[in-house]
Structures are given as C-alpha cells and as structure tokens.
Specification:
The protein is α/β, with parallel strands linked by helices and 449 residues long. The protein contains 16 helices and 13 strands. The protein folds into two domains: 272 residues, 3-Layer(aba) Sandwich (Rossmann fold); 158 residues, 3-Layer(aba) Sandwich (Rossmann fold), CATH 3.40.50. InterPro entries: EryCIII-like_C, Glycosyltransferase_28, UDP_glucos_trans.
Length: 449
C-alpha cells in the first residue's frame, strides 16, 4: 500500500517515525517521508522517498534555539511551553497541511502516519472523513490524554494519592490551562478557522490522541500512569527497533568487557547545547568510582564541547550505536528523552534522570513512579546528587529488578507485527476508498464552476 509519514523536523520525532517507516518499507509498502530538508538523510536511509515541506515549515529543530534565538531568554515553564506550542508547532501548521495535500495529489496514500505534534493533519481530522485517508499518530512522548486525577501535563506530577492532592492538582491545572492551553488553543483555532475547519473539540494535546483513527503509544502500559478508561484510539506498541549501524564502534569498544560497571550518559540531541547541565557534573561525580566506566555520547556534537577535565574512567563519542551499547550498560544517566528512555528500559537498564524542559519532567516522573530509576527533579543536578543516585541504582537490586520486569513487558509485544497489523487494519477501515469520494467531490466542484 501507499503510506505517507509526516514528521516534525526534530530528531526525537524523525528517528522513531522512520524506524517505523523502515518496518513498513521492508514489508513491501511504498513510503513517502514528508518533513524539512534537514531531515532528508535519515528519511531516505529508512528506504522512504523524501518530500520537503513548503518553506514556512521547512525548519530544522535539531537546534531549536538557533531557529528561535529569543527562546533562550524564556525560562523553562509555562511561558516557554506556550512559545514552543505557538512558534514551533502551530505556526507551521498551514504549510504542513499544504505539503500533505501536495503529496496526496500525486501519491494517493492509503494511510497517513504522523507524530503527536504534527498539527498539519488537524484540518483533515476535523474535516469530512470521506475526504481523507486513515490517519495514525504516534506518541513520541508521554501519553497526553487527560489524567484521572486531573493533574496538568508537563510539570512532572505523580498520580494523586488523596482527595486533597486531587484538589491541589485541579487548581494547578486551571492555572496551567489559563497560562498555556487556553492562549495556544485560541491561536490554533484561529489558524484552523482560516482553513475552514475547527474549532478543536478539546485541548490540542488531547485532541491529537482522540481524533486520529489510531494512536500508537511507543511504550508499554506499565510505563504510563494508570487511567480507568483510555481513548479508543490508543494502542501500546512497545519500543521501536533501534535503527542499526547509525554509528561505528568506538576505538575503545573492547574495554566494555564486564570488568567494570558501565554507566552511559547523554543529554540527547536537542538539549545538548550546554554539557554543563548533566554530562560534566556526571563525569565529576563518578571520577573516583573505580568500579565504573563512564561512557558519554554527545548526540552529534563534538566531544570537545564537554567542559572541564575528562576523568580517566570516561570514554567519549559523538554518536554510539545504541543496539551495541544498551546491552552492555548497568545504568543510564539521561535528561529524559522519551525514545532513549524507552529503549533503555526495553533492555532492563535502570535510570538516573535529570531534566525539566520540553516533556522531560513528565517522563522522569514516570521513571521514579514506576520504580525503574531515580528522578533528580533538576535541570542542573549537583555532582553529589548524581553520585548518590547512580550508586543507588547500581547497588540496590530493586531498581534492576523493576527495570528487568518492565523489559519483559516490552519483549511480550511484537512491535513490528503490531505496527503492520494496525496499519493494515486502518487501511481497510471506514476511510478506505477515500480517494474515490474526494475525486467525485472535486469533479462536482469543477462542473459547478
């Protein structure tokens, strides 16, 4: 079948979507990848054909602060979240939608797949069902549908344990909505109205879960806060396969021989502009731990960007093949990127997390709540706190046991099979044959004109 995969131009969205794309290509499907020109290489590496967004959406979010320099001066919190939603996700919507329509003109897709913040599909989801292909969105971050306890998203709150806490959460959610979702929603509804659709029936981060034909959460249910009733669209599909051979083995690969515990440290590929936040303090924290080898990957930046002295027990690389390194590590120190956290957990690796920006506070809250690691609840933890947390997850068996139990849940899901099954299921569903209905409507319009 013909499939369009449309992605926000950020590594944390591109990598999982085109890992999924590789599965579809290998199964014999014809895939077109739609994103920014900066993402051509990873899209084509999956076997998909590349198509670029029109210029207003042709952005490179691998360095968001380079795209929006003013963002650097906005503190982490509601103001930065509102800025991110309006500038990075709502403003490009019209051009993304036009790009989708351009691809559909000569590539009548059977299914469209996008990430959870690709708002370019919203005009289709709000329009007539007969005039669009089935649409699947993928949860590349924690599940956004409304929580049972009414807590706001993106602030890192564990499930409420009392009525008083639920009331506290409700007050926080009201304040959060007024500061973020209400103004962002008004902006989004204005854009949608200009396209002849809308308004959204619910807040945008919930709408992208409930409106598509299916919503694939790229995790397991044990790594998500419990809900009495999930939207009918949601399917947990586990961790996507790691795309192999994305980086060569480092010269020091032979040193991971089991003689020392291995701790992997990363700030990911987005929040890696300042390695003083997590990488440098972790190197300092573990410099004297003789039983530990500290492995750092800089997510594509030069290792020379790491400040301070490099201890003798540290090994550095710009990129590492995760399919090689994850089975060899004993702990993972991360700022909380959703994809890498799920990959680590699928190998049973306990985690030390420190990050508050983007979706990281909520990802890291799930790490501590589920018992698979320690959340330092800081964007810039001090070395002493990191050392204590790393020693806990290395020395206290409960963390490894809990992470191993969760890994069994990942292994119980045949992710490749589930993805192929769901894609084929929606392609045969109510929106099948949409091209006939759409072409008929175009013919009627042409006749009237």
């Amino acid at each position: 079948m013909k499939i369009i995969i449309a992605s926000t131009p950020a590594t944390g969205h591109i990598n999982p979507l085109f890992s999924l794309g590789s599965i579809l290509v290998k199964a014999g499907h014809e895939v077109v990848g739609l994103s920014a020109n900066a993402m051509r290489d990873p899209i084509e590496a999956s076997g998909a054909r590349f198509r670029a967004f029109p210029p207003p959406a042709d952005l490179d979010f691998r360095d968001v602060d380079a795209v929006f320099p003013e963002r650097k001066n906005i503190p982490i919190g509601p103001k930065q979240m509102l800025f991110n939603l309006e500038r990075a996700f709502i403003e490009p919507l019209t051009a993304q939608y036009e790009g989708l329509k351009d691809v559909l003109w000569d590539f009548p897709a059977d299914v469209i797949i996008g990430d959870n913040l690709f708002f370019g599909v919203l005009p289709m989801l709000l329009g007539p069902r007969s005039e669009r292909p089935p649409i699947i969105l993928c949860g590349t971050m924690f599940l956004h549908c409304r929580r049972d306890d009414g807590a706001p998203h993106f602030v890192g709150l564990h499930p409420a344990r009392s009525e008083a806490q639920r009331q506290e959460y409700a007050a926080m959610a009201k304040e959060h909505d007024e500061a973020v979702y209400a103004p962002a929603g008004r902006t989004l509804d204005k854009v949608l109205a200009e396209l002849g659709v809308g308004p959204l029936p619910r807040p945008m981060v919930e709408a992208v879960v409930t409106l598509p034909d299916r919503y694939l959460q790229l995790s397991v249910s044990s790594f998500e806060f419990p809900r009495r009733e999930l939207p009918a669209s949601v399917r947990f599909v586990g961790a996507l396969p790691i795309i192999p051979n994305q980086a060569p083995l480092p010269a020091w690969a032979h040193e991971l021989d089991g003689s020392r515990k291995v701790v992997l440290v990363t700030q990911g590929t987005v929040s890696n502009h300042d390695f003083g936040h997590l990488v440098a303090p972790t190197l300092e924290a573990l410099a004297d731990e003789k039983d530990v080898l500290v492995v750092v990957t800089t997510g594509g930046r030069s290792v020379d960007a790491i400040p301070g002295p490099i201890p003798g027990n540290a090994r550095l690389a710009s990129y590492l093949p995760f399919e090689w390194i994850l089975p060899k590590i004993d702990a993972f120190v991360t700022n909380g990127g959703y994809g890498s956290v799920n990959q680590a957990l699928s190998f049973g690796v306990p985690i030390v997390a420190a990050g508050l920006g983007e979706d990281k506070a909520d990802v890291n809250a799930r790490i501590s709540w589920s018992g698979v690691g320690v959340d330092l609840q800081s964007n810039e933890p001090i070395p002493a706190a990191i050392r204590e947390a790393v020693r806990r997850v290395l020395d206290e068996p409960v963390y490894k046991l809990r992470a191993s139990a969760m890994a069994k849940e990942y292994r119980a899901i045949d992710t490749r099979f589930e993805i192929l099954r769901i894609v084929e299921e929606v392609a045969r569903g109510p929106a099948a044959g949409w091209t006939d209905a759409s072409e008929a409507k175009q013919t009627r319009r042409a006749a009237r004109s």
